[in-house]
Design a protein that fits this description.
Shape: elongated
CATH class of the largest domain: Alpha Beta
Helix content: 40-55%
Radius of gyration: 31 Å
Number of helices: 10
Structural class: alpha/beta
Distance between the termini: 96 Å
Number of domains: 3
Order of helices and strands: EEHHEHEEHEEHEEEHEHEHEHEH
Largest sheet: 5 strands, mixed
CATH topology of the largest domain: Heat Shock Protein 90
CATH superfamily of the largest domain: Histidine kinase-like ATPase, C-terminal domain
Strand content: 15-25%
Number of strands: 14
Length: 421
């Protein structure tokens, strides 16, 4: 602002008197403040209109999602009741597509209702004491067909003897479902997704780790934002899965985060507070383990790894011998080599699943071809629950076997308790 005035007679500039100069500055400042106040008021009006629009949108989404559940459920019930009546596969396929489409619509509606509850601050869980290992293995089992179709290894790394957790089991299974599905979006055929769990102070630390393309550092802070999706994802979803996972974990009193780097895969971790150990009596019952391999040195190696007083390791050098043992023994877990002459590991597994005594025996396949997508697909299609790649890590073998043995012991204890009552 000029502090001079032009003289009308001479055309020259002369300085303003101090008092007039101050009044000019004050008027200019008042004008600028008035403009800023009008702009601020306009911004506040626009912000309130935006908030109202978001509230209206969320209310509409909530009402629509709620009202759509009934017709979707009617479609699912009708389609599922019709399916067993159709023997012809060509007639079943359109109905199966209808069921898959209705199930996907149901999941989308559930996500929208969850988002509406999160935004309104009404999101909650129904927690009860849950066996941690049982819950994780149920999550792995529920995802096996999905990873089998993608020819990806779904491995476990679960510490045995984990304490129980106070959890909403259905909601935690939903977290695992979202994390495994998310990992599949980034993991190519022949890759590995690992589901793991271990103690971390008073919490149980759980994770889903993949060998995919990884996540860039600038994308990590947005991973749990609603409707956000990473770039270069071939299979796209709603962008709500990880947002809902975060709400579920935090409702349990835990936290969730991700660690990743480009071309180094990604690991998504979350915690759940554990229930203090209740000094449950450990069963002294010996567990029977079946090992099937045509090479004696491999049998000796696995026997040495699993040498424990409470384990009975029984070996077979052919598929036929293994099936004969399965007819007489009740095994807690079986480790079966895939590449055997005559009856290979897949054939052994399929026949074991047909026998009543061995139908529920967890089968861990052992192979030297861990990056073969076709073999991975066949392993899970044959009923395998896990997949070990040679050369074997003794500690990993022990942990995997210990988890399934602990599960078998608890199931047998429950069966005996039911019979006694």
């Amino acid at each position: 602002m000029s502090h001079e005035i032009r003289e009308t007679d001479t055309g020259k500039f002369a300085a303003l008197p101090p008092a007039e100069r101050a009044r000019g500055v004050e008027e200019a400042l008042r004008g600028e403040l008035a403009i800023e106040r009008r702009m601020l008021a306009q911004a506040q009006r626009e912000m309130e209109q935006l908030r109202e629009a978001i509230r209206s949108r969320d209310q509409v989404l909530g009402v629509v999602a709620h009202d759509l559940r009934n017709p979707i459920n009617v479609i699912l019930l009708a389609a599922n009741s019709l399916l067993p009546r159709l023997a012809d596969s060509s007639g079943r396929r359109p109905l199966e597509r209808i069921i898959r489409g209705a199930e996907r619509a149901g999941r989308l509606i559930r996500d929208l209702l969850d988002l509406n509850a999160i935004e309104a601050g009404h999101f909650g869980i129904e927690a009860s004491p849950v066996e941690t290992v049982d819950m994780i293995l149920a999550a792995v089992e529920s995802q096996q067909s999905l990873v089998a179709n993608a020819s990806v290894i779904l491995a476990t790394d679960i510490s045995p003897d984990l304490p129980m957790v106070e959890a909403d089991e259905e909601r935690i299974l939903e977290v695992f479902e979202n994390l495994v599905t998310n990992a599949l979006n980034f993991t190519p055929a022949g890759g590995t997704i690992q589901v793991g769990a271990g103690r971390r102070g008073d919490d149980i630390l759980l994770w889903v780790k993949d060998t995919g393309c990884g996540i860039a550092a600038e994308q990590l802070p947005h991973l749990f934002d609603r409707f956000w999706q990473a770039k270069r994802v071939p299979r796209r979803g709603t962008g709500l899965g990880l947002t809902i996972c975060k709400a579920i974990v935090e409702a349990h009193g835990g936290r969730i985060w991700a660690e990743s780097a480009p071309d180094q895969g990604a690991t998504l971790y979350f915690t759940i507070p554990s229930i203090p150990d209740s000094n449950r009596a450990k069963s002294a019952e010996a567990a029977s383990i079946l090992i099937v391999d045509d090479r004696p040195e491999n049998l000796l190696s696995l026997r040495a790894i699993l040498d424990r007083p409470d384990y009975r390791v029984i070996t077979a050098r052919s598929g036929e011998e293994a099936l004969g043992l399965a007819l007489r023994e009740r095994f807690s877990v079986a480790l079966i080599d895939i590449a055997m002459p005559g009856m290979n590991g897949f054939d052994v597994a399929v026949h074991m699943k047909e026998l009543e005594r061995s139908r529920d025996v967890p089968i861990i396949f052992v192979t030297a071809f861990g990056d073969d997508p076709e073999e991975i697909h066949r392993a899970y299609s044959a009923g395998g629950v896990d997949y070990l790649v040679k050369p074997l890590d003794p500690e990993i073998v022990r942990k995997k076997v210990a988890v399934f043995i602990d599960l078998a012991r608890r199931r047998r204890k429950s069966e005996r308790a039911r019979r006694e009552h």
